[in-house]
Amino acid sequence: MQGWQPDKFYPDFIAVTNKNSILALEWKGEHLLGNEDTTYKVELAKEWERLGSGKLHFFLFSNDNVDEVLNPYASDVEMFKIEPNEDDKLMDNVWFYGTSAKCYCLYQITDNKIEILKHTSHGLGGLIGLNEDDIKRIWSDFLSYHYSILSKEAIESKYSSKFVMGKLAMTSPFVLQRFKRINKDKQIRPSNFVIVGVGHRIDNATKEPIIPMISYTKNYDLVPYTSFIDYKTGKEYTDNTKFYWKPLPEFLFAYVDHNDGKYDGEIGELRRKQIVISDIEHIGKESNNLEESEVIGVSDNDYVVYDNKTEQKIADVIKDMTTKDARRIGLSKRHLFRLKKRIKEGKKIVLKKKTVKKLITIVR
C-alpha cells in the first residue's frame, strides 16, 4: 500500500476468500500497538478498505485478539488452546510425532524415558486384539525406535505373534453368500460378526488380493491357523493358512513410515499437491457400509462408477426404453418407471453395476 508517507506498507499476510474478498493482516507485538508507525498503517489500511467497496478487509492482530481475528465462526470460540492430558495437566512445551494430521502422539522424553501424553488411534482402532493401552505402547515403541533406543528387529520380535485382523458385521447378502459353503452347521446369520484380514497375498488366478475371512471367535491367537474363505471369491483355504494373514509388525512399520498423499516432498516443509480436474466421475454407492469398505476394500457389488458423458447417454436410453427391453437387462417394470420419473425430475439415477454394464453396452 502506498500512502501519504514515502515508504510503502507491506502487510504481513494476504489472503483471498472463496468469495474473492482480499484480507490484509498485520501482526504487532503488544509493545508496538500504540506507536506512531502502527497508527499510520492502520489509518492507511482503513482508507484502502474504504476504496474496496466491501471486498477489501484489514485486520491488526496480536496475542490479545488473535482468536477473535482468525475465528471463522459466527460464535466466540477459542481457536488456539493448550490441551490438558488425562491428568488435566496442560500439555505445553511437549514433543509431537506423527505421520499425518490424524496419526500422531504428543510426548515428553527425559533421559531416554518416553512418556506418552496423548495419542490417536486412527488407522489402528479398527484392529481387534489391540486396546488403547496396546496402541499407546505401540507409539512408545516407535518413538524408542526413532531415538534408537529399540531396534527394528526388537519391535518385530515383540509383535511377531500378532496379525492384522478386523471385526466386521455381515450387513449385506454379498458377504453372507461367501459363507454358504460352510454355513450349514454354524448357521451364520445377517448381522453376525466375522473376522477379516487384509490383502497380503495375491490369487494367482484372479490377480486380486486374497482377503481371509472366518466366522467370529474371541480366541484371536488361533485365527491365523484356522481354515478361511476368500472374501472376494468364496474359495476355501485349509493349508498353511498363516501364510495369508499379514503380520502386525509389517503393518505397523508401513503405518508409521507412510507418506502423506496430499503433499510433495519428504524433508522439511512439504508442498501441497495441486489438483487438476481432467474429468468427473459419479460414484453411486450401493452399500452404505463404509466400515466394510475400510476393512476389506471395495467390491464390484459396492460401487457404480460411470463418467458424466455416459450418464447422460444412459439417461437418454432409459427415457426411450420399453418394458420389454428393460426386462431383457434385468430391470422390472416398476423400477423402469421409477427411473424415468427421476430423470424427468432431474435427479440422479442409481443402478446396480451389472445393469450399468449392460446399459453401457447399449450406449456404445
- The secondary-structure element order is EEHEHEEEHHEHHEEEEEEHEEEHEHHHH
Shape estimate: flat
Q: Low-confidence runs (pLDDT<50, min 5 residues)?
A: 284-305
For the largest beta-sheet, the strand count, sense and barrel status come to: 5 strands, antiparallel
**Structural class of the helices, strands and pairings?**
alpha+beta
> How many separate domains?
4
Mean pLDDT: 79
Number of helices: 12
Strand content: 15-25%
Radius of gyration: 29 Å
Distance between the termini: 59 Å
* DSSP, total strands: 17
**In percent, how helical is the residue content?**
25-40%
- The strands making up the biggest β-sheet line up spatially as 7-8-11-12-13
SSE blueprint and pairings:
Layout: E1 13-16, E2 22-27, H1 36-51, E3 56-61, H2 66-70, E4 95-98, E5 104-110, E6 113-119, H3 132-146, H4 152-158, E7 166-169, H5 173-177, H6 183-186, E8 193-196, E9 201-202, E10 209-210, E11 212-215, E12 228-230, E13 236-237, H7 248-257, E14 263-264, E15 271-272, E16 281-285, H8 290-296, E17 303-307, H9 308-319, H10 323-328, H11 333-344, H12 353-363
Parallel strand pairs: 2-3
Antiparallel strand pairs: 1-2, 4-5, 5-6, 7-8, 8-11, 9-10, 11-12, 12-13, 14-15, 16-17
Helix pairs in contact: 9-12
